[in-house]
């Protein structure tokens, strides 16, 4: 049996993982006895078009040394692990599957190399918060010391687990397990980087946090419920986290946002009736990680948990097969919150249900032989969402692998709408009340506060028909495709998506973060329309340039000629983007260009190109040139096509360029001198 049995790989080639290394990696995987037909896909990170959703949903693991590829965002949503190539190499060397989280290429998971364990001196409430925190930022946690433990969290060293760690370090003659105070982990999250261990030794009191500020929670006043049962030191750190991102923590009479562990109680009921956002600390950490607001009902484990176990769940023992990484952890959490038992190993007379991602492998085989119920994850998720065990003979729960589809991937089930607040949340209870008290000023009759026609791209948020109507009331129209009236692009960052690139040809006036729409909707819901002008969110606060680190983000170096100019690059985009950028050129587009020639041609045409011919080595002649220069757009390695093009172009003025030349020219609003393969 292969070490990687059941896995289906997507390997992303990039400047950090060359085509040669990717091919060698594929050979190494196959050398373990891996023989899944079509189970290893290779793709370049510069390819504009993602692989189909259905094909991506069938991938169980992505190997990439960068997160700069078009599938990354969807992979995160589908909980498909993304690991560096070292994970494959190390797993083969150790002849066991290494922890996936430790190999993430995503810099936002700055605790990916951390594995914590808590000593007896850490109370249960603090332990739960610390575990949630380290998990959210890429690390792992265990209840006991293991070979992977890097940090033991403690207030003193007077217990067995601390003595074991000290003895282990002495035997190794070096400190492999750092014994640190809880503040080390909390201050690391406050600083958004892993801090040095030495400064947080047990017994010391100093703190060395370097707060990273933002306006993520501006206007939001949080009420932290006491049902977490946490210490003042942890509570203080949570308050600091919220305040450094523009929010406040205050009493119930001033709050407009609720964070609690459980559903129930007077404050929960009040928050529910007042339609505040209601979430738990998983929700808070998720937003801090991504610097992005999300409605807490969208992901089930972001909402406070029921206090009591689900009836009948005490008799349920669940194991899983072919669910990996975060999806496996997510299912385990659901089982345990519901009151069931999660087990790694399948046991003939104990395990009652096996959740099956793909109907292959030893677990699935024995589960069938032992008459253990084999179901997909939807049975568990819908049981949680409806807080009632669902019929495990329902045909919908008996579909596996490709039959389930991307729309029903792990984590995509929402909580039921309309149940009472003591059971499940209403997913429309996400409004934010304003705490501002200033004199009223009515808007002018028949005028709207904004004049925005916007397109959304790369956004996690989903907006209902009701949301779109509310946005339209205040002058924000959201369109699906770029139109001549478009004046705004809303995206989480500078993207290379088709929508983003084509929209730049419409000379947009604004480039804004998605938080803008969330804040506008929250303000619409909490104020009368006549009052909206007085309290409306100001556009300049949501300028995309304020949410980009031009010096540290490697993507900026790939698309801007001079990233050191910082926000001035965005100013240039807004002031100089237009639909005439490529009007001085006729384009010949390689039939085999990554992303597909039709899509690439449509992008080039949106910037003024009049003639765009799809070309291959069989093309016999070129049409009459109508512009000043003839371009060939192809891959640098496609020398046969380049030689063929030179013969066809004869004595004409030509230029042979890569796709990155097009991208960089668009973002710099001029024809650049990079990524030019040849010119006459």
From TrEMBL:
Residues 1-105, 106-202, 212-294, 305-397 form the BRCT domain. One of its GO terms (biological process) is double-strand break repair. Residues 419-437 have a biased composition (Polar residues). One of its GO terms (cellular component) is Cul8-RING ubiquitin ligase complex. It holds the Pfam family RTT107_BRCT_6. InterPro entries: BRCT_dom, BRCT_dom_sf, CellCycle_DNARepair_Reg, RTT107_BRCT_6. Residues 417-446 are annotated as: Disordered. This is BRCT domain-containing protein. It comes from Ogataea polymorpha.
């Amino acid at each position: 049996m292969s070490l990687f049995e059941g896995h289906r790989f997507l390997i992303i080639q990039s400047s950090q993982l060359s085509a040669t290394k990717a091919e060698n990696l594929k050979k190494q995987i196959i050398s373990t006895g891996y023989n899944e037909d079509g189970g290893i896909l290779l793709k370049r990170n510069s390819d504009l078009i993602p692989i189909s959703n259905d094909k991506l949903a069938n991938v169980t693991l992505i190997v990439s040394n960068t997160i700069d590829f078009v599938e990354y965002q969807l992979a995160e949503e589908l909980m498909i692990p993304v690991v560096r190539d070292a994970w494959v190499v190390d797993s083969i060397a150790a002849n066991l599957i290494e922890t996936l989280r430790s190999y993430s290429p995503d810099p936002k998971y700055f605790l990916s190399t951390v594995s914590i364990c808590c000593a007896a001196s850490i109370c249960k409430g603090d332990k739960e918060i610390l575990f949630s925190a380290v998990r959210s930022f890429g690390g792992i946690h265990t209840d006991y010391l293991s070979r992977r433990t890097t940090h033991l969290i403690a207030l003193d060293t007077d217990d067995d687990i601390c003595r074991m760690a000290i003895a282990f370090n002495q035997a190794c003659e070096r400190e492999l397990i750092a014994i640190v105070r809880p503040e080390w982990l909390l201050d690391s999250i406050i600083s958004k980087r892993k801090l040095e261990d030495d400064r947080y030794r047990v017994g010391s009191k100093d703190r060395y946090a370097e707060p990273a500020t933002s306006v993520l929670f501006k206007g939001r006043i949080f009420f932290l419920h006491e049902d977490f049962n946490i210490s003042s030191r942890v509570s203080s750190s949570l308050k600091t986290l919220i305040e450094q991102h523009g929010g406040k923590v205050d009493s119930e009479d001033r709050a407009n946002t609720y964070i609690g562990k459980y559903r129930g109680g007077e404050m929960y009921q009040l928050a529910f009736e007042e339609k505040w956002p209601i979430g738990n600390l998983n929700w808070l950490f998720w937003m801090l990680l991504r610097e992005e607001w999300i409605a807490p009902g969208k992901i089930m484990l972001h909402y406070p948990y029921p206090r009591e176990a689900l009836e009948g769940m005490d008799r349920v023992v669940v194991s899983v097969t072919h669910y990996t990484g975060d999806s496996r952890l997510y299912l385990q959490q659901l089982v345990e919150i519901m009151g069931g038992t999660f087990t790694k190993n399948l046991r003939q007379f104990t395990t009652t249900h096996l959740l099956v991602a793909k109907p292959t492998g030893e677990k699935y085989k024995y589960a069938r032989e032992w008459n253990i119920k084999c179901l997909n994850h939807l049975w568990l998720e819908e049981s949680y969402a409806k807080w009632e065990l669902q019929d495990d003979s329902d045909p919908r729960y008996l579909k596996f692998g490709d039959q389930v589809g991307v729309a029903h991937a792990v984590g995509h089930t929402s909580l039921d709408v309309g149940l009472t607040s003591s059971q499940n949340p209403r997913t429309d209870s996400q409004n934010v009340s304003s705490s501002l008290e200033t004199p009223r000023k009515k808007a002018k009759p028949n005028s709207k506060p904004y004049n925005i026609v916007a397109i959304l791209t790369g956004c996690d948020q989903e907006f209902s028909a009701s949301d779109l109507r509310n946005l339209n009331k205040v002058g924000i129209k959201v369109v699906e495709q770029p139109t001549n009236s478009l004046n705004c692009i809303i995206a989480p960052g500078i993207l290379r998506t088709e929508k983003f690139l084509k929209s730049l040809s419409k000379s947009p006036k604004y480039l804004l973060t998605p938080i803008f729409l969330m804040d506008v909707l929250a303000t619409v819901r909490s104020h009368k329309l006549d009052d909206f002008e007085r309290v409306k969110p100001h556009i300049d606060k949501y300028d995309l340039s304020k949410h980009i680190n031009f010096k540290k983000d490697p993507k900026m170096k790939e698309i801007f000629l001079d990233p050191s100019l910082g926000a001035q690059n965005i100013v240039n985009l807004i002031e100089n983007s237009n639909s005439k950028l490529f009007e001085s050129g006729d384009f010949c587009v390689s039939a085999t260009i990554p992303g597909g020639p039709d899509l690439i041609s449509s992008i080039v045409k949106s910037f003024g190109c009049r003639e765009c011919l799809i070309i291959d080595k069989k093309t016999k002649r070129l049409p009459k040139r109508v512009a000043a220069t003839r371009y060939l757009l192809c891959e640098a390695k496609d020398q046969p096509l380049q030689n063929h093009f030179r013969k066809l172009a004869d004595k004409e003025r030509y230029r042979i360029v890569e796709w990155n030349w097009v991208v960089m020219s668009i973002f710099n609003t001029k024809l650049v001198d990079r990524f030019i393969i040849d010119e006459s």
